[in-house]
Amino acid sequence: MILSEESVKQIKEKMERYPYRxxxxxxxxxxxxxxxxYLNDDIxxxxxxxxxxxxxxxxxxxxxxTMFPKQPRGKYLIQxxxxxxCSLLGADSLISYLETKLGITKGETTTDNMFTLISVxxxxxxxxAPMMQIxxxxxxxxxxxxxxxxxxxxxxxx
Amino acid sequence: MFYSPxxxxxxxxxxxxxxxxxxxxxxPEQVKIExxxxxxxxxxxxxxxxEMSPEQVIDEVKKSGLRGRGxxxxxxxxxxxxxxxxxxxxxxxxxxxxxxxxxxxKDRVLMERDPHAIIEGMAIASFAIGCHxxxxxxxxxxxxxxxxxxxxxxxxxxxxxxxxxxxxxxxDLDMIVHTGGGAYICGEETALLNSIEGERGMSRxxxxxxxxxxxxxxxxxxxxxxxxxTVPHIINRGADWYKSLGTEKSTGTKIFSLSxxxxxxxxxxxxxxxxxxxxxxxxxxxxxxxxxxxxxxVIPGGSSTPILTPDMIDVNLDYESLTSVxxxxxxxxxxxxxxxxxxxxxxxxxxxxxxxESCGKCTPCREGTGWLEQIIRRIEAGQGKxxxxxxxxxICGNILGRTVCPLGDAAVMPIQSAIKNWRDEWQYxxxxxxxxxKSEFPFGQK
Lengths: 158, 446
What we know:
The structure holds two protein chains of two kinds.
Chain A (H helix, E strand, L loop, with lengths): L4 H13 L7 H12 L4 H11 L3 H8 L13 E6 L2 H5 L2 H12 L12 E6 L11 E3 L2 E3 L4 H14 L1
Helix pairs in contact in A: 1-2, 2-3, 3-4
Chain B lengths: L9 H6 L17 H6 L4 H9 L2 H11 L11 H6 L9 E7 L8 H8 L1 H15 L1 E8 L4 H16 L4 E4 L4 E9 L9 H8 L23 E5 H13 L1 H5 L9 E8 L5 E6 L2 E2 H6 L13 E5 L16 E2 L1 H6 L8 E6 L4 H15 L5 H18 L7 H12 L7 H15 L1 H10 L14
Parallel strand pairs in B: 1-2, 1-5, 2-4, 6-11
Antiparallel strand pairs in B: 3-4, 6-7, 8-10, 9-11
Helix pairs in contact in B: 3-7, 3-10, 4-7, 6-7, 6-8, 7-10, 14-15, 14-17, 15-16, 16-17
């Protein structure tokens, strides 16, 4: 089993609240992703057993959504918004700055597996642009100084 | 401490008799149920359950003139009245909190800072349509909103505002917080319903409309966060009061998310009919263009709406006025850009987004957005060819109105307006192989 007892419990609790079990697919994928950091066919199978829905239906749903990737990523996933409001306030230069700071290009993970850098569509933080999301947290109104401090703090925490 | 440092006009709202959605959003205590109750929270819910019939609630909201704040502007009370009275099936209410229209960040503020207002509005809407299980669909990335709403929901259950036999009325109401998986299309109501059902988030062909056959093939109403948060105020203060705000056909107030090249981006609640120029230039709001530069364009209602040129911004922010200048109020996301911005660059950012978010169901949208991105990327890279503009126009014409959901139209409308309003600049780009103005924006230098 890849999913922890706690994850299985959470999935079951969520499932029981819906009128139909199939509705628990997205919540289950979210719980699994939060625990493991990525998804694979074995995880699909485990979810399929818990919510008693054919595995193909789990895969069908999972592969539609951007938040359930099948590739493992670094400990910290940095997602920079590159949509219009953030771009007008320097998202492109923020991405270049992060690439230089981390020594990787967009889409890559640092060799120590600490950071993965990607750019994504609008995250609903347009009036506090530019911004990035690192794992579950938003970092807004970014400046080079702020970015330096955030990366330093994350490295210290790891 | 607030999660997001976003600027609001809460002070102006608090000093006003009539603005209401943002009254307490600068007070961190507002998220607690006791504070919310002391400020009159859940009073409308009690009034509805103990003194009103569902028909009376629907009539009051109809009379208020409230229109959907998610983008389409469809009358909320009228939508509710489409739920068949005699259907033996369960009915469902879904609050659409999948806020993802580029430029829009208003529902997030409400969820983070006034979560009970949303739950109260959802409860009232549920009663109006005879629903006993309501959902809120929150976009997956908004973890903090998800936590806030869940915490508020637990408080509401503990206080007996949700659950069995609420206020001794015999009415039962449960709530589920559902989170998305990162897909813009799930903000479209039928895709949202598929997503709750555990399917890929693809739009459904209408009819049947969700009010007849929606979630689990049962009558379902999908309303935006802001629309629902408005409902308790209409119940408390009456449809006549609400109708007295705004304009004749665009009643009430609306939150506008201001972003891009302005000195003070933020979320501002104003009465509908508020001048766009004032929102951009007034020191209380946008406070003018960044660096004293010249305005070049304004996207008035989220990235899916036609772009305005500076000579068009003498317009009021209401549904009719924006339609009269060829654009739309949409979700109320006002995106401003100044003279140093290349229009081809703007459109490339947008078409990349729509190509990425097209669900792939309809061929014109799936293929068309991809072709458009390729051509526009080529032009932006300096490799435009004669005939490219006509080619873009042709593809746009073949997408518009030919898809199941509005995503195709949304992808096309800003492009068509950009070509119509800045055709010379597109020509220059193709002929000279470079931007007329280079969009180079360093970050963190406001």
